[in-house]
Records
---
Amino acid sequence: MTGLRLSDVRRSTDRLADGREIIFFDRPGAPKRVVDDRRPLTASTASSQLRRDPMLDEYVVIASHRQDRTYLPPADECPLCPSSGGRRTELPVPDYQVAVFENRFSALPGPGHGRCEVICFSSDHAVSFANLDDDRAELVLSAWIDRSIELAALPGVEQVFCFENRGEEIGVTLSHPHGQIYAYPFVTPRTTRMLEVAQRYREQTGGILVDDVVAAERRDGSRVIAENAHWTAFVPEAARWPVEVHLYPKQRVPDLPGLDAQQRAAFGPLYLDVLQRFDRLYATPLPYISAWHQAPLQIGRELLGLHLEVFSIRRAPGKLKYLAGSESGMGAFIGDVQPERTAERLRLG
Amino acid sequence: MTGLRLSDVRRSTDRLADGREIIFFDRPGAPKRVVDDRRPLTASTASSQLRRDPMLDEYVVIASHRQDRTYLPPADECPLCPSSGGRRTELPVPDYQVAVFENRFSALPGPGHGRCEVICFSSDHAVSFANLDDDRAELVLSAWIDRSIELAALPGVEQVFCFENRGEEIGVTLSHPHGQIYAYPFVTPRTTRMLEVAQRYREQTGGILVDDVVAAERRDGSRVIAENAHWTAFVPEAARWPVEVHLYPKQRVPDLPGLDAQQRAAFGPLYLDVLQRFDRLYATPLPYISAWHQAPLQIGRELLGLHLEVFSIRRAPGKLKYLAGSESGMGAFIGDVQPERTAERLRLG
């Protein structure tokens, strides 16, 4: 039943005990979400600072209050499960489909200087994104779109970043299926660099870099792992990570709100297919980072293209890729796996 | 007995069984190093590729042959210890002071396209850089200088990077005290970015960015942790890592060969002091990456300044900093520790 109209998503918003916003996203027909959060929470005292690294002209966020954030709690203390009986979690409801709330341990400074949200993909603690069905994936996508629009309207927000970290190997502190949404008060370093490169390409060739790169990958085909009518998934020619797949809509849009109904409906099936291929690579589920690249809100919207980069640090069973001197010191990535070989394994897997 | 003249370093060069170069660096008076490598080694079949990521206009190295490199061997199989009796290592001598040889598992493609070397800081398996004495640190520095000059003369080399990865937590596969030297066939992404920023600063202010940044840090003083007549060590204002210290010579030079005798003699005492402070932070030695930033060989030599960046991913006992979505996806670092707090701990430590 994909083909969800955004206007058909049931969206209900409320406040947690300490004043943080919580928003539920449900398919039509779900029960009403009634929040009754009586936890004795004091208002969060987040005190992040934005600092600028003058040598690289990049912002760095200093968020020292997060050192004490919840760290790998046992499943029966998971703060992202629905509340039940006397146990009260961040979700003060008996059940939910997709829910978003302001992060209690926000990395960004807060009002006027960004915002951090948590997005729960399911109330079921034991699933992962790869196990969701097409309907749920589409509902998550509609929540990402909603948040991208709403957060863009906050003062001081320059770029919205929806992402998921999955797996203890990359430092995930809660195993419940969830992602995060950062509304940055600056254009991120990586997007800044991509925009500079796209601008130079435009001046030199008159073309749009992302269009030409995706067209070349599709023409070549050796690294394409899956596609459908509206999306293509491929391992990039210069992959930095042992497993790395980029998903692009065939028709370029600047950001998630720019996707049309057909693109939205077609995303879930391809993304779930990619994630399931990831999990079949090894005996254990693949740790990964899934990162939506959206154009910033004020600049570069005609030059950059929405895409999703999904990548893993696992390079072999029991072996991880570490960012050591060359990567962390010089930004020079040494890839351990031939991208065509990764594409082949994912295509056949 | 610091104040070693480069011309007084005893330098002897030879070949390993498979043709790789090995170079010994000794203080005056050491015995002659006679190499007799009879291991049945076949010539290395490294086959790295340079690929360009068009979206970021950066090179990525694909080095898939390294998947099988030596991984955490037991101490009695360490390939960096001197050879003894029937056991033959990469060092076919009964002892050495500092030794450099071409990496058998080179990340870079080789002749005409870069070179990777290993540098052993001591023949003693059990020490780490922090335990070396001033004399040895100065000898290591003279070896880095030698390699920076020699590698710069190879065709196709654009930048020389001397670095050390220390600790299993950052993926070190051999515990013997050693570092690496990469002679890149390109200017690294991070240096490219630093040069762009320094050029813009020059155009806008007429000043040299690195001089002004170091002067500001010294004037402010709140993050300076140690200094001597020729070097300053401070935590940068926008530190990305939980522990991060930068060491700058007070008189700017573009690269290691640019250091004069006084700067060379003064480096070891300060660096050893910093590393010893690192190891006193926690109950166990601090994993770290130590990265020499040298100006590229052809460009930016009047705008960039030699410095050493030393940083750790340890953010608390038993807790590491992971590069997750914000850092790996967007290049936006979320620091977990107030830089002034880190500086204070290191100053008092």
Note: The two ends of chain B are 27 Å apart (CA to CA).
---
Amino acid sequence: MPHAQPAGAHTVRRHNTGLVLGAIAEAGAVSRATVAAHTGLTKATVSSVVEAMIAADLVAETGQEQRSGRGRRGTELTLSPHGMHGLGVEIGVDYLATCLVDLTGEVRKRRIRGGDNRNRSVASVLGRLTTLTRTALADAQALGVPIGGLGLAVPGLVEPAAGVLRTAPNLGWREVDLDGELRARLDLADRPLLLGNEANFAALAELWSADDLPNFICVSGEIGIGAGIIIDSGLFEGVRGFSGEIGHLAIDPNGPRCSCGAHGCLEQLASVESILRAVGLWSAGAVDPTSVEALLDRLRAAHPATVQAVNEAGHWLGIALAGVVNVLDVPTIILGGRYATLQPWLADPITEELATRVLSATWHPVRVLASTVGPYAAVRGAATAVVRAIRTDPASFVPTLVSQLAADSPR
Amino acid sequence: MPHAQPAGAHTVRRHNTGLVLGAIAEAGAVSRATVAAHTGLTKATVSSVVEAMIAADLVAETGQEQRSGRGRRGTELTLSPHGMHGLGVEIGVDYLATCLVDLTGEVRKRRIRGGDNRNRSVASVLGRLTTLTRTALADAQALGVPIGGLGLAVPGLVEPAAGVLRTAPNLGWREVDLDGELRARLDLADRPLLLGNEANFAALAELWSADDLPNFICVSGEIGIGAGIIIDSGLFEGVRGFSGEIGHLAIDPNGPRCSCGAHGCLEQLASVESILRAVGLWSAGAVDPTSVEALLDRLRAAHPATVQAVNEAGHWLGIALAGVVNVLDVPTIILGGRYATLQPWLADPITEELATRVLSATWHPVRVLASTVGPYAAVRGAATAVVRAIRTDPASFVPTLVSQLAADSPR
């Protein structure tokens, strides 16, 4: 029988930094004594870890702890909003985006650059992305904050471990080594690049901003349609990380040909592009914000043909989502991306199909909610994924944390 | 910070019985010393637990341990095939079944009673089921083995904790308190009744009989179509236990009306019933074994219209399964129930649709396998679920185990 090796002092210190930072993140504002009680560490250990994290600008001291009852009130600790940030970067089908998020999860700066990426080469899109990312890195420098790493959201299938995009049908991209390409263009040193599907990052952004919503499907509607699946407060990625590709559910097997090569995929019948096409507002290969505004104006004015087109897309979406709920048994659907603004017109036809087609709907009706994160949730999720990684294992982002602890702190 | 209470001696003994039985189950045949090494318990504790389990006929001693190397060879321990059994019971749409499984997982006796249950009242079906179950209990008595509990497989949505069947569209049943109804008819005393969906039990039967197949979807084809989803070697039940209802995926939204009330569900296009109807072999409301044999004869003879009908059902199935794989990202599909015998004719059209429609298929083709458990996997899974529960916590099935340990054994 193998015997467990005792963890080295270095490993223990590294683990403790994550425990302490996690306890502060969860509480929002908390004393050293309370952190000690919540983590089971001694007060001396907590104090030395906290001092090192204050020095590294991961933790800040702010006034007095709010606490009832007797006893000395300790100084309040919070995550530092002025220390290390996460940078999210997104390749959309018709936009590029960056998002700077501080350690508390607040968005500090967002940049969006519109434009159809389908008519550009991979090199050209990555060139533009590099420029936008350099601008975001300059934003961070102007704010005086270091970047812990990059989260990169893409509209396709990725293998995160390999850093490779396998396919993005709406971009027409296949087999792009995004980790390699970006590292060749940007000086990331040894900072991590977290590659992920945009719908998965958007779902995580909803999870992290919601109170107590542990199980849902977040449907992102843009030119494509994707979904992120959250089960038990975690991302359900599938066996190889390819879950949630609902844009390619066959809804009308004899329907129009899709960018993926198959026929009758949901994307061809219910995407924002297909809605804009149906009402004559599609132009120039991109979801133009002016067109979306015009669509919303017509919907608010109850323009019959426009309401009818959105209603029809809602029915197709409802049929697909009923299938997803019949397979996964998830109680809540969140409409994200540009679907969020269309939610008042999409929710009824979706709910109608769910009520008819979900076998368990009589006992447990499925809720259809609009995103609370709003547009560009994916790039925010990508940035926050970096922040979450820092919170879990701060020492891997700030190696001096552990060496300082070794020199200064009681074991 | 709350302090963990020390576990009581009773709790520890109870836990140890499960540890020891689990180690014996996993090894197949093993010495007391090896059990001690695998569980981390002392040899004295293992010996006293084993003696109690031999007395309770859960464990048997069989000759010498097969082991190379030096040292005294211990007596070999195995699960006892003559002790407590699990009884599986199934309400099919057109049959009733029982299955007696011993502690090693071997089927000892199976009984099938055909007949359309759609034209009978709930009371009439439960009456017939009671008679069949009594016969199975008499079989166990004739074998001289006690029954630890019942597993009950049904073709519908169940809430196991409540013991209630919510709906079984193909039976036309809604809100049946199966736990209450069966306990009123059978003397089960305090033995557990594990209620579950038939496709889920069938998937578990495949998992438990397979070597190293941790992720798959098991599709059961009978009059209805259901699926059990296995992820990381466990059943993926969904949030409320209603996952895997693929029979009601909308494949042709304008297609025929389904028993669930919606239109164009997979069941209407690809079930064994719909195949038999398409080739003129359907009769009398049940899947007649003679009809299935006639179907297979025609397929073996390459009868064009029959091959074409099965091929078409395979394409519909493939479209639905491609959707399921796009959502779940699972690498293997097992065809179970009567689909298993049709696998040679179904696999190609299914694989064709998967290759076209699964976005990740280029990198990770999906395998389509026939069930290795064979027909009536669900009732076997239901019986084995009881056996697995006994193995995990034998003391809750044989309370004397713990009291005997308290009197006899070293702590």
Note: The first helix of chain B runs from residue 9 to 27.
